Structure formats: C-alpha cells, structure tokens
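Quick illustration, no need to memorize.
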Amino acid sequence: MPLEVQSALIAAIVTIAVMGSLVLRRRRRRADMLFAVLSVILILWFLAIFLRGTYGPEPWLRVGLALAALLPAATAKLFNELVPWGTARGRTLKSSASPLSGFFALVAISPLGDFLFTQVAVGIFAGGTVLLISKMMMESTDIERGTVEYARRRYLAIGAAVATILAILGEIPELDAGAIGHVTVMLYLFFLSQVLLRDRLLDLNEFLGRMIMLSILAVFFAIVTAVLVGLGTTASSRLFNAVVSVIILLTLYEPLKDRLETKMLDLFFRERYRFAQTIEDLRRRMQHGVIDPAKMSQIVVDTLYDTRRTTHVAVYLLEPLGDGFVLHSHRGSTPAPRVNAIDLPALWQAIQQNRAPLLAEHLDPERRAIKDKTRTDLVDAFVAVSADVLLPFVSGDSVLGFLAIRDDRSPEPFSTAEIASLMQIAETAATVIWNSKLADRLRERERLAAIGSMAAGLAHEIRNPLGAIKGAAEYLDPKSLANAEESEFLQVIIDETNRLNTVVSQFLDYARPFRAKLEPTELNDIVRKTAKLIEASRSEPIKLILNLDNQLPTMQVDSEQIKQVILNLVLNAIDANMAARHHPDADTLPITLATRFIREHGIVEIRVEDQGPGIPPEDLERIFIPFFTTKSTGTGLGLAVCQRIIMNHGGTIYPESTPGSGTSFVIRLPLERGDAMSTTGSHVHRNAKAYGSSGTSHGEGTASAIQARSSRSVGSKPTSPAPNAPRARSEDAVDSANAANLSASEGPTDSDARGGASDDLPPLPPLAATTPARPLK
C-alpha cells in the first residue's frame, strides 16, 4: 500500500480521536460544534483519498473533490467564531463562503468533476479561500502588532496557510507529497482542538511541548505493541498480545504523561518549571500559618517577584467600606494606588462582573462587544496597575481583592499552565482573607460577651452606690455650708457623680437589647428640636446651620433614639471645632445639620459636618469599635451606640473626612424597613469592626449628657434622693438582666463588618440645599 494511502487512513483515524476527545467533554458551545463539522469533512476527505488509492479513482476522486470544496465554508465559520471579523470584507467573505462551497461541491460531484479544468478550479477555490481567511486574520485591526494576542493569532493563521498549501501540493501526483500534506493537516487539527479545550490561543512553546510529549508516548507504545505482537507465533497469540498492549497503554498513559510533562518542563522550559514549583510551594505556605491579609500580600508579592518570572507584581485588597481596592504590596514600578468606580471605572466594572482571570491579551477580542471609550479605558487601566494578568480573589459573591502581574521581558509571558497555577494562588488568598474576617468576628464576639458580663456587674456594683452618693450630696443645703469653698466642693461631687452616671448609662445603652418605639416621624422636626436643645444647653455661643430638605417623607423611626444619635454627633462636632485652635475663627466655626431625600434609592440622609482638624488615617477603621477613643476623657462608646441605633433602624452611618478639612458623618435611613429593623432579637448586638473614619474628638456625647447640661443651665433644682432611690435600684436590676443577654448575641455579619455601608448605592451627588441655610442664634 502506498505511503500516501496509508497516511490518509492514519490521518482519518487520528482526526476521529481528536474530534472525539473534544466532543465527548459534553460541552455544547458553538465553536465545538463547528470544529466537529470541520473534522467530519476532513475525516471523509481522508477516507476518500484512502479509497481512491485502494479501489481506483471512480467515484472517489469526485467525492474527495466535493468534500474539499466544502472546507472553505466550514473553516470560515469556525475561524470567525474563534476570532470574529469586524470588517466589511470579512462579513462578505463569511456570507459568500457557504453558497460558493455548495456550488463548487455540486459541480465536483457531477460528471464535470472528471475534467482537469474542474479539478483545478475547485482546488483554486478551496485553497485560495482558506489562504484569504488566513490573510484576513493576520490583517485584523482590532489588535496591535507586537502583542501576545497578535503573535498567537499569527500562529493560527500561518498554520492554516501552511497546512492548506501542503495539502494542495500533496494532490499533485508528480510531487509525491501527499503524506506530508496529510500529516500537516492532522497536526494543525490537533492544534485547533487544544485551542478550543483551553478557551485561548496557544503559544508556540505550549504546542511544541505537547507534540513532543505525545510523540514520545506514541513511539513508546508503538515499540511495546510491536514487541508483544512480534512475540506471537500464531494468529491467536498475536491477537492476545495486541490486547495486552492496549491494556498496558491504558494503564500507563496518565502516569507516563504526567512524568513526561514534568521532565520536559525541566529540560526545555526550565524557568517555567521552576516558576510552577515556586507557585506550589507558595500555595502550601499560604495554607499553613498565614492569616493576616497584609502579611499574606507581602509574601505573595516577594515570592513572585523573586522568581524573576515577573517584572511587576501588586496585590490590591478591598477597602473596609467596599468602595474600591487599595494597593497593599507591590514590587516593580509603582502602580495606581486605588481601583474604584471613580478612578478606574472600566477595570472596577470588569472585575465585579467577570469574577474570573482577566488577561491583557484578551482585551482586544472582548472590545468588540463594548464601546470604544470603554475599550480604551480598560486598556489604560491595565497599564495603570502594571498588569498583563489580573486574578481576582473571589469568595462566594464577593471580590476581596486581586493580584496583578506583568512580565516585560518576554513576548509570551504566561502559559495556560502558569495561569492555572496563579489561579490557585488567588483562590488561596481569598481563603486567607475570608479566614481573617472570621477571626475578627470571633474576637468581636468575645469582646461583646465580655461587655455583657461586665455590664451586669457594673449596673449593680456602681450605679446603686452612685445613686446614694448623689442623693446624699443633693440632700445637703448649700446655704447651710460654712463657706463658698465647701459649697463648691459639694457641686464638684454632684457634677462628677452625674458624669460617672453618664458613663455607666452609655455602657448600659450599648449593652441593652434594641428596643424601639417606631412611629411616623418628621426627621426635620427632630433636627430642629435637637438644635434648640443644644443651643439652650451651651453657655458659649455656637454657630449651627440648618440645611433641610422640605420634601422629606414621613419615616417610621424611634424619635428619641434618632435624637440621641444627632445629639452625640453634634457634640462631637463641637469638640472637633474646639480642637481647631489654629484657625483664626475657631470660636465661630459653623456646624452644619443637613437633610435630603434621595428619591431614586428611597433613602433619607442626615449629615452632620464640622470644620475641625479632621481624622488621622490610622484612626479611620477604629472609631466604631467599642472603647476606642482619642479623648482624654470618655468611654469610647458614643459612636458605637450611635452605629447600633442606626443599623437597627435598617440604615447606615459612616464618616467622610480629610485631615485638615473637617469631618462629615452621614446617616442614611431607608423608607422601607427590612429584616434589620427587627425591634427585638439577637441581631441587636452586631458591631462593625472596620467601618470608616472619625475625628480625633469624635465619640463621647450622649443624650443624657446634654440633657443633664440643659437641666443645670436653666437652673433647675436637684431633686431629693430619697424618693428616687428604690426606682434607681429597680432600673439597675432590669439593666443587669438586659446586659447579660449580650453574651449570647451574634457576632458581626459581613455587612456589619463594613459598618453597614450600602454596597449597591453609587456615590451620591453633592448636597443640594432646598431650605435656605440659616444660623441659629
């Protein structure tokens, strides 16, 4: 049997195997089906050549010619699916390939196919169309020359052109090159199958490596089969030995393939092999003993950079409020410090939507589905973060950060296997970050349990004797004292007792389960009454500016608790303004109380702004932690209580601050209450650890404190302690029981860990006043 005929049969069998390996993976993508159609045409073409060489040209010459005429249509559809053509010429070629292929196939299968003129015409059509398709892929304008995607697309186009030319030359009898053409077409079909299996164009090194591995395995199993079959002396023994050789092949294929891949990587691609080993060691190191995200980031960056396989490495982690990713660690040139919806919106949106590895080489094919401006922004964003490959840290439905890497030294930076290894690093990093959040929750739950235990004891051990001390001091008549100094000391006792009672009240307010009397309320009325109360309680003048939206809807809230929150924030703002001593008008710095209705989101916003020194960056994530304070006095529970009240109303509270430019605390309350508005239950004790900023003087004022000041400022007379003592003990007993419930409360949830900040609301426009601003006298 001639070599040309044997090679056609072998090519048909191998093509069947290649097609089966792709189709049997049970994927129903259009590209896979088009590849199967092309494979079937080639299989029939190879079989027609085999039958023509075995039984003569009639009718197999015309059958093979008709099948060759169908190849341009199948090739055009498959290549357009892999690399869509956006030009008018490409669309014309795609639409005309099928009817022309059908016409030439009908001509070839007819008696006209026996004429040399028809055979030449069909060959020119088939070969010329495939070459034109290859040329169009090379000249595509949607990618730039010199990029990785361009190089890999060039491999695809050149391979198709070479296989077509050799197949045509193989059909010329005088050249006797049929076997070379068949083997080339078979190898190119294998290359296409690997492209489809990996959903990306292969680089030349990957393809050559796989071909070497398969060639070694083929030679090995051919030798085993030849030896075993050759040992047989009869037909039955040779058949038995052939079956044994197949069993050996099936048993040894996977382990030998894995071992050969390892050895070839070490011998021919040593740098990549060592990189893969380093990645595996890094993954194991991250899985054992690393729980701090900052430490994890530095380990990942240092390890990847030291492999000398990358020139730029950076790790970005999600901000506490979830508004963007912040650069934590990097090596190489300094990338963009933040990725968010404002600075790099295209990249932020791509990360949130895809939640999968992003490759710079894939940007160009993806650009066809989006506008030119977005395409340009996405490319610029990859340049800004110094990334060729971007791997997000995905946990559930959240993206906790991402790894950006780049290699400027190689035109083929990262293979499929390397990207798969890096994806494992990204998955491990997501696990480390999530475990860190769980550890923070556990510590917060232990903190809350300790608060509950201490609150029960404090209510009994401190408040009862405190009531007796205050009662005894107030019972004394200042007129009966010998001199003014004794009267002053008596007032000190009363004032300090009131202050200590305020501290204990704050503590119990924080520990007490959430109880609210929800009723229709006008928030503007609460703001006005609070402003008047503050004005009456202050001996020194203050400048309060009310900027109220007259279109606010009626809200279902507890008016007393909302007033307590506003009181606390305004008192903090007063202290912040007093801290701005460097300002020439420190005594008259304004404090703004503003409201507005965000109609599109169904949210009412309350804003308290001061003109103080702002908040140090190191304090931004700690102000809502119980007992954190930067004041010389106070408990550090004021803002924690405020946050709990707002969160249990289903809302959010967060600060906006720039050092030296003042601080704004923003409260957002929804019109429609959700589950978070439950008035009882274990959810009331959830605390946000990492919320946002606060000023150096934020966190201590309460409604009880301002009411106490107001009482003294209007000259009210202290009441006798005797009638009130039993009631005080009764309240302490209730407070003790309520505080004890804290030990069984839940820890913070994910939303609480972000301070309850809204994740789905876009940045809001600047505050627009609908009521003329007026200072309070």
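The radius of gyration is 39 Å.
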